[in-house]
Write a structure and sequence with these properties.
The protein has 647 residues and is α/β, with parallel strands linked by helices. Among the domains are: 363-487 and 497-509, no CATH class; 555-643, Immunoglobulin-like (Sandwich), CATH 2.60.40. 24% of the residues lie in helices and 17% in strands. The chain has an 8-stranded parallel sheet with strand order 17-16-15-8-3-2-19-18, sandwiched between helices. Strands 1-24-26-22-21-20 form a 6-stranded mixed sheet. The longest helix is centred in the middle third of the chain and has 19 residues, at 303-321. The chain is globular. Mean pLDDT is 92; it is low at 11-35.
């Protein structure tokens, strides 16, 4: 029987904890790289990602809220209308970076929504008009959106006018992040452009903004709609897609050809209302609402030009701007052969720098075989080289939500988490291949090691914390993300348990796209760092630094309460197992409002011998007192057990 000692690493509730917060912050900073030179050398498996919707983080420069000649009605100064621009920008991120905000939180990489110049308004998207505040409606792939950039640098030096100045601001943001030891991941969309053209449904040769049919045409299985016309509405930046030829930026000539500025590059098949959930091929070729689908079929006449165009564009961002990785949007809506060509040619174009970059994708699907197929090329198994480096772990995301996303003190079963981890690590195709490609990428890591673990996002999943979900349950959810395998990815606002009050459990919505720091609020980092969720996340990041097995170890399930048992108390226990048993740990999560414990565990399989253990309470209120082979778990807690040092 093991002797167990306990230590509380999270903050005590109900009293001042400035000293504790400072200690946690120092512990986190100690695990971070000291200089920008270490950023590229740090393996991606060491990182903690913070996903931020830039327009909703902080309005650092109100001067860019209404760009010259733009429609002023697209900006909401009250920051309440979720369909409008709120004003968040690069300057808001820069101020947070400069203050040490992300370092104190334990973040080592920031994934930003697409920064490229967008169409600023659409007349039809999910039922009504919206603005392009989120960045996914590209108009110019080689310009930065005017809502994001400033006229002068953070140090007060003026930027040049136009696209050159905007790109310099982006480069400065990346360099500032690197100086803090933080990588930048750029979200990119290669499936579609924004509403750059309209369908001239009434044949009058001009856009009729109130006509739904000019934004949306029904899907055509055969052929295409021949009435597509480029937009020309300056106040909405509704224009022909760019670039339309070579560009000069940051002292570099980018040899783009203008293939994106040709209507023949687009499918023009119209919109299918149920295509988002399909996998019969229709989802690959139709428009997304009023967004314009790029024709990515490898059999098309323009295929090689289109692939090479995107290779040159994103090689520029990765090599010249200094971006560290790409998050690829709407992967399953693009021909798989396109991803084969794009990833292979981009890595070849990057050369040795490919070892430091990451390409991970979004496949909005819970089936592991569907997720994993994009880590393989279409010519597998003959060619085992990786396609995407990794993907967002949607199956695991939904499993974690099934377990923890319930009202009040309710909880589900952790069995779904175990099943998701089992299919992730052991699931195979009929030909014997693992679902997730084990072939290392240029950095020596494979798709399992670089999988992105998350529990909330900006799309229909919404924030984990909606009405009826408590702050403590939110913290437990973040704890599970940080303790399971993969690269943890936190959604902006997680550090203050930002509440999507209009969201509902079981309903898809985008109500969580809230502004984190409203108006011109300048949050003092010492005050923000006092908040419970901030300190919890910082402590979790410190734990990942202290116990490397949380970053590299295998998942071994130990105890999961049976949902059929009336005594089910919401406990999930698992080990993270590394090369040596002395580095292994056990994580016990109790989702219930009552103290509980695991059943009898054979801890020899984890630690090799009977050994004293220390219980580090990463999330929780009270110390635990029980000891033995039944590991105790206080109410609403997450406890990490590791071998105690010799007396």
């Amino acid at each position: 029987m093991c002797k167990v000692m306990f230590r509380i690493l999270s903050r005590p509730r109900g009293g001042p904890a400035r000293a504790a917060a400072a200690a946690v912050a120092l512990a986190v900073v100690a695990t971070l790289p000291a200089a920008a030179a270490t950023v590229g050398a740090r393996p991606w498996s060491e990182d903690v990602i913070y996903f931020v919707m830039t327009d909703r983080f902080r309005d650092g420069d109100p001067a860019n809220n209404i760009p010259a000649d733009s429609d002023p009605g697209l900006h909401d100064p009250a920051q309440r209308n979720l369909a409008s621009y709120h004003g968040g920008d690069f300057r808001g991120l820069e101020k947070a970076l400069a203050s040490g905000y992300f370092n104190r939180l334990g973040i080592t990489a920031i994934w930003i929504t697409p920064p490229v110049r967008n169409v600023w308004r659409s007349g039809f998207d999910l039922g009504g008009w919206k603005s392009g505040y989120h960045g996914y409606w590209t108009q110019d792939f080689l310009d930065i959106d005017l809502h994001l950039t400033s006229r002068q640098s953070l140090a007060g030096e003026p930027y040049p006018e136009g696209a050159e100045g905007r790109m310099r601001h982006y480069r400065d943001l990346v360099e500032l992040a690197h100086s803090k030891g933080i990588k930048i991941v750029q979200d990119v969309v290669l499936n579609h452009a924004g509403p750059v053209f309209y369908y001239d449904a009434n044949g009058n040769g001009r856009l009729d903004p109130s006509g739904r049919e000019e934004w949306i045409q029904p899907f055509r299985d055969d052929g295409f709609h021949g009435n597509a016309r480029w937009g020309d509405v300056a106040e909405w930046n509704m224009r022909r897609t760019m670039p339309d030829g070579p560009r000069e930026l940051l002292g570099c000539r980018i040899p783009t050809t203008g293939v994106l500025a040709s209507l023949e590059t687009y499918g023009r098949k119209g919109f299918s209302s149920d295509s988002l959930g399909k996998d019969d091929g229709e989802e690959v070729v139709c428009d997304f609402f009023s967004l314009r689908d790029l024709w990515t079929d490898p059999a098309s006449d323009h295929f090689d030009r289109l692939v090479d165009e995107f290779v040159e564009i994103y090689a520029f961002y990765l090599l010249e701007v200094g971006v560290d990785g790409l998050r690829l949007d709407t992967v399953k809506h693009v021909h798989h052969g396109f991803w084969d060509a794009f990833t292979e040619r981009l890595r070849r174009r990057l050369g040795p720098a490919a070892r430091e970059k990451v390409l991970f994708g979004e496949i909005y699907d819970t089936r592991p075989e569907r997720l994993g197929q994009y880590t393989w090329r279409t010519d597998a198994p003959a060619n085992p080289a990786p396609c995407l480096d990794s993907v967002l772990a949607f199956e695991l995301c939904f499993a974690m939500r099934e377990y923890l996303r319930h009202p009040g003190g309710d909880f589900g079963s952790g069995l779904a988490v175990e099943e998701a981890m089992k299919s992730f690590s052991q699931g195979r195709f009929d030909d014997g291949r693992y679902y997730f490609n084990r072939t290392p990428g240029p950095d020596g890591l494979n798709s399992v090691e670089k999988s992105i673990t998350f529990i909330e996002n900006h799309d229909g999943l919404n924030r984990f914390r909606v009405r009826d979900v408590t702050e403590r349950r939110h913290e437990l959810a973040q704890g599970l993300v940080m303790c399971l395998p993969g690269i943890p990815c936190l959604y902006y606002g997680a550090e203050v348990a930002l509440l999507a009050d209009d969201g509902r459990i079981g309903e898809d919505s985008e109500t969580g796209r809230l502004t984190l720091w409203p108006g011109d609020e300048d949050p003092a980092i010492d005050e923000v760092a006092e908040r419970g969720p901030f300190r919890t996340i910082a402590a979790l990041a410190a734990a990942r630094g202290r116990w490397p097995v949380l970053r590299h170890g295998r998942f071994v399930p130990l105890w999961i309460d049976s949902p059929e048992d009336e005594g089910d108390d919401g406990v999930l226990a698992f080990a993270r197992v590394g090369q040596g048993m002395d580095e292994n740990v056990v994580v016990v999560l109790n989702a219930s409002s009552s103290a509980a414990q695991t059943g009898a565990l054979d801890l020899r399989r984890v630690f090799g011998v009977e050994t004293p253990l220390t219980g580090h309470v990463l999330i929780g209120d009270e110390p635990v007192v029980e000891a033995g082979d039944r590991l105790p778990a206080p109410a609403n807690s997450l406890v990490l057990f590791s071998p105690a040092p010799a007396e």
